[in-house]
Amino acid sequence: MPSFAADRSKSYVLGLGCERGTPVDEVRALAKQAMEIAGIGPAALAAIASIGSRSGEPAILTLSQELQITPVFFAAARLEQETPRLKNPSAAVFALVGCHGVAESAALAAAGGAAELLVPKIKSAHATAAIARILLQKE
Predict the structure, then answer these.
(1) pLDDT at position 136, please?
(2) Pseudo-torsion of CA 39, 40, 45, 48, nearest 10°?
(3) Domain 12-133, CATH among 3.20.20.480, 3.40.50.150, 3.90.950.10, 3.30.420.180
(4) Reduced to 3 DSSP states, what percent helix, strand and coil does the chain have, rounded to the nearest 5?
(5) Which pLDDT tens digit goes with each residue over 12-39?
(6) Maximum alpha-carbon separation in the chain
(7) Cross-strand pairs, 127
(8) pTM
(9) What percentage of the chain carries pLDDT values higher than 70?
(10) What are phi and psi of 73, to 5 degrees?
(11) Would you state the pLDDT for residue 10?
């Protein structure tokens, strides 16, 4: 897993989930809404994270390129490990992709074990977004 703790100015991870073929405008607007709720701008993002099955999704890749943030992707099994920390676990999502949430799980997985969910899942017609805050592990 990448470590984002090195750059203290980038303390947040945007988790995204979307249906295949979701328009980039929809994902962009949802990401903006999540950042507004969190009270942060794109410069505070250390990563954009999602499920591995969306690693080629044009909307996520385009947004990542626009924000100049390298996306990270996780296997469904890894995202499923985050289920106890989710605010909005979904049996329907599990049936579709093999984990109980994508946006929240991906944000938490990328932000690390001490992370907290700052913006629980928000939804648009075809996408979800969540933001986790990176916290340093206590020794």
Answers:
(1) 77
(2) 50
(3) 3.30.420.180
(4) 40, 25, 35
(5) 999 999 999 999 999 999 999 999 999 9
(6) 43
(7) 18
(8) 0.92
(9) 91
(10) -130, 145
(11) 86
